[in-house]
C-alpha cells in the first residue's frame, strides 16, 4: 500500500509547485506526472506547455483527463512517485460531459473517479507515494450559477474523500504549507528564499 499525500490550495497558492518540489526532494525513483488538463483553447494550451517545461525532463507524463485511476493502473509498477494534478480539472471535465450539472450521473462519475484514484494509490508498493493536487473551493463566496455551485459541491466532496484516505494532507496558503493531517512539523516542509516563494506564486496555477 503506497502513501497518499493530498495538497490543497486556492488559485496561485503554490499547490502545484509544492507537489513538484516534494517529488524532486525525495528522488528515490522514477516519477509519473498525471495531467488532467485538456487544451481547450490557446490560453490553456500555453499553460500546459509552460507547466510541462517546468518539470524535470526525465519525468514521465501521462495525460488522463478522465478515467485517471484506470490509466494509472495500466502503467508499469516502476514509479516511486505519482503526481495527479489536478482533481479540480478532472471534475470540470466530467461536468462538461453532462447537460445537467446536478444529475445523479455526474455525482456518480466523480465518486467513481475518486474511488479509482484511491484504489490506484493503495495498489502502489509500500515504499512509493501518490501526490494528489486539488483546489480548496470552500473559502470564497457561494457561486452565482447552478453550474458553479455544482462544481463547488463536487470538488468539495471529492476533497473530503481524498483527505480521509490520505496519510498526509497539506493546505497551501501564499506558497506556505500548513499540515492538516499527518506528521506535524515545527517548520515548513520546504524552506524557500523570498525569491523562490515569489517565483512559485507567479507560476503556480
TrEMBL record:
GO terms for biological process: cobalamin biosynthetic process. One of its GO terms (molecular function) is cobinamide phosphate guanylyltransferase activity. It holds the Pfam family CobU. Its EC number is 2.7.1.156, 2.7.7.62. Pathway: Cofactor biosynthesis; adenosylcobalamin biosynthesis; adenosylcobalamin from cob(II)yrinate a,c-diamide: step 5/7; Cofactor biosynthesis; adenosylcobalamin biosynthesis; adenosylcobalamin from cob(II)yrinate a,c-diamide: step 6/7. SUPFAM superfamilies: P-loop containing nucleoside triphosphate hydrolases. It catalyses: adenosylcob(III)inamide + GTP = adenosylcob(III)inamide phosphate + GDP + H(+); adenosylcob(III)inamide phosphate + GTP + H(+) = adenosylcob(III)inamide-GDP + diphosphate; adenosylcob(III)inamide + ATP = adenosylcob(III)inamide phosphate + ADP + H(+). InterPro entries: CobU/CobP, P-loop_NTPase. It comes from the Bacteria. GTP binds at residues 9-16, 35-37, 52-55, 63, 85. Keywords: ATP-binding, Cobalamin biosynthesis, GTP-binding, Kinase, Nucleotide-binding, Nucleotidyltransferase, Transferase. The keyword ATP-binding applies. Gene3D superfamilies: P-loop containing nucleotide triphosphate hydrolases. Transmembrane segments: none annotated. The active site is at residue 51. CDD domains: CobU (cd00544). Catalyzes ATP-dependent phosphorylation of adenosylcobinamide and addition of GMP to adenosylcobinamide phosphate. Belongs to the CobU/CobP family. This is Adenosylcobinamide kinase. It comes from Caldilineaceae bacterium SB0675_bin_29. The lineage of its organism: Bacteria, Bacillati, Chloroflexota, Caldilineae, Caldilineales. The gene is cobU.
